[in-house]
Every structure is written in structure tokens, then in C-alpha cells.
Amino acid sequence: MKKLDVYLQEIKRQKISVDDLQHAAEILAATPQLPAELENPDLTREKREDLVRSLFPLAVRGIIEVLAQDQTMKMMPDLIKEAETFEKPDKYLRCVLEYVKEPDEKQAAGIRKFLSEKYPGRELRIVKEEKPELGSGFILRVGSEEYDWSTEGRKRALADKLKNLAKEPDSGDFLTQKGIIGILKGNLDGIDISAREIGTVSRVGDGIAYVEAALEAGMDIDEFAGRLSFFFNAHNNLLEEVAKYRAARRLWAKIIKERFHAKKDRSMMLRFHTQTGGSTLTAQQPDNNIVRVAIQTLAAVLGGTQSLHTNSRDEALALPTEDSVRIALRTQQIVAYESGVADSIDPLGGSYYVERMTDELQAAAEAYIEKIDAMGGAVKAIEQGYIQREIAESSYQYQRQVESGEQIVVGVNKFTIEEPPAKGLLHIDASVAANQVKKLQEMKAARDNVLVRQRLDALRTAAEGSDNLMPYILDCARVYCTEGEICGELRKVFGEYRPMEVL
Question: How far is residue 482's CA from residue 142's CA, in Å, rounded to a whole number?
Fold first, then answer.
């Protein structure tokens, strides 16, 4: 139980009136240093009681002493507001809102609208409580009534719905896969919880799809889960990026253990490579990119990456020069050998801000995954254009923020300078390409092209069935089939990707 509720119960028990509380608040306001003096830990209990007895009326002395002892004098205004609901129950409506991630403005407005329509003519008193155990979403308690929009609550409601359907005659149509998916979609309506990093969610969703495909092929989860790896980008918001990687590790471990019932610790470990964010690099003032890459490198290491690629400062303009590549390499080496951040597995573990953000990102990602599951999984979501639309919308919103100045990009929309055309960029001589084409032609002429054709035909035949294609691809590579030739055979079976309209 929250302290506020404990204090309110004590106020009710002692029958302290709102007028008495307001009188006490006026005394505190008249002497600004008084709350600090009352909360002073060096003040003995006897002296505190004497001070309270000399300043406050009898009716409020008990609650003032409790607040002072708990060092919560600042809660007096909230106590007065809540106490009003006891004295004027017809006017005031006390609501308790429990959540994992505090609702945004849009969600809060929806909650207020719901309450005003459900309880017209009542003044709202909303008490907020953080409850990570809800999974995601929130619970609204109004008196003896409860409105549950949490993940756990929806799961319970959904389970009850399916159980009740199963008991009903002629329920067969509802209990088909199609029917259950329809029920799932219906239970996901009405709540809007977004993730900060769609890339993390989509990749974890892809990981789920890969695992399911492997299990369907007859593999044991503990045989292959420990060999899976992920690829993440690193962007500029240092602490958010660290939280992103920590949330991804937590989420993957939970999925592998609870969803796929892995037993080995290694199976639950998220192994990932990180590349600094190419989309964050700017053609304007390219030396600024050195700083950006350094921040991103630090975020990746603090977040526990197993391997790392650092972009070069001039990649927004051309292929990097040798000098630029060396700076990118030295960035990694300085972070690895001089910064000390690699000396601990989780250096920011325990930071209130990072831990809270990790919790929020995990909850939001789980909500995304629920939505993707309801669509039929990551593959179906891609086929329906959902993930493409989410990425496109995220990119669009970011660009709008940059153009409006809400999102500052140093050197682009703020702190700009007049710049001459970039100098010293890498230019590839056309002879390099010509020489590569010549070498390729010589290799094709020297190889056993009859065997090449046989291996490519075998690959295509396997692709038409359900065999594991990797052995066939390796057989092709061993006789010097090119990547283009291998992909060409697969295109004959699977077709060629055509991007769908996502906006």
C-alpha cells in the first residue's frame, strides 16, 4: 500500500477534518523552514513532539508527527485534496491509476473522458502508482470498481473468454486458429502503447520467427538458440541506447525461457553485433560525426555488445578514406583500452534512470510483440506491410522534428556555418571495376561449369521443397558459383521482392 493511502486511512481513523489539515498547511506555509526542521533526522523524537505540540492544533498533531518522521511533509497538499473526497463524496471521485509506463497525454485524455462519461458531475482525484508487474498497460480503480487494461488482465480476460466459448455448444468455429486470432485482435484494440525503437522490436520479432521455423523443422531449442545472433544500430541518445540493449537482453531471455522453454543458460543469452548509426551521420560539418560515433560506441559497450563496427566521419559523402577509417578504429580502441567501461559487464546497472527506461522499453516492446503475434507473426506482419509502415512513420516523424527544429542536429538545423565543398574524399578509379570484371570472367572460364550447373540445379530443386538450403548453397560455393548465380536460382522459386506501398 502506498504511503498516501496509509496516511488517508489514519486521517479517517482520527476523524481529522479538511479544515484542520488546511490550517496545518497554512502554519507550514507561513514558516518555510519549518518542514525541513521537523524532518531533520538529528531531531530527537521528544523535541519533535514538543515542536509539533507548540505550533499545531491537537487534531492534526498525530498526522504531522507521522509525516515528519517519514520525511514526507511535502505530501500535505495531496492529503488535503484526497481528504476532500471523504467529506464530499458526491462531488469528488478518487481514482487509482496503476501502470508500467505512465500514460502519455493522449492516453490520459482518454482516461479522463472515460471517467467523466462514466461518472458525470464528479471532480476527479487521480492517484498514480507504478506497477511493473502488470507487464504493460494499466489498471484503473474507482471505489469498488476496476477497469483492467493491463497485459496480465487482458490475458486473464482472454483465457476466460476462450474457456467460456469452449463450454458453449456450437463453439467449433470460434476455436479454429482463425477464430482465436480474431479474438486476439479484438482484445488488442483500444490501447495505444508505442516503442521507442521499432528496430529492436522488429528484430526480436524476426528472431521469434526464426526460432519457430527451426522448431517446426524438428530442432531442439537448446541445440541452436545459443548460436543465434542479432544486429543492432547505435544512435546518439546515450542512456536510451544503453537501456535499449539491456531491454533487448531481458526480453530475449524471457522469450526463450518462457515461450520456447529452453533449459540452458546459454540459450537465453542475447548475442549481438552493433554498428554505429549511419543515418545519424551528416554531410554538413563531417568532423562532428567523429563525436557522434564516439557516443554511439560508448553506448554499445555500456549496453553489452559482443562486437562493434564504427562508421567513418565521411561516409555521408563517399566511401571513407584511410585516415577516416583509422579514426573510427582508434575510437573503438580508446573506448576499449582507456575508458574503463569494458571492465564491468553492466556498468550502468542500478542507475534509477537507466533501470526505469529499461523497464519502459521492455514493456513497450512486449506490447509490440503481442500485436505482431496477433497478426500471425513477423513474416505475416511484413507481408501486410505493418513493419514497413511503422519504420516509414518513424522516419517521417523524425524528419518533421528535424525540419521544425524540435530535434536539433548540430551543423544541420542549428550551429550551422558556411562550408566550402568537401575536400580529400575517396574516389575509386574506374580501372578498379574493370579489373574486377576481368578477374571474374577468368574465374568463370577456368571452373568446371558442368558441375556448376549441376549444383545450381540441385539448389533450385531443394528450394522447391522443404529441405535445409544451407548445404546446397555451400556445395555451390565450393565449385565457385557466384553469389549472383545462387540468388538467381532462388529467385526462380521464390520470386523477387517488390516493396509494397506503406504510406
Answer: 67
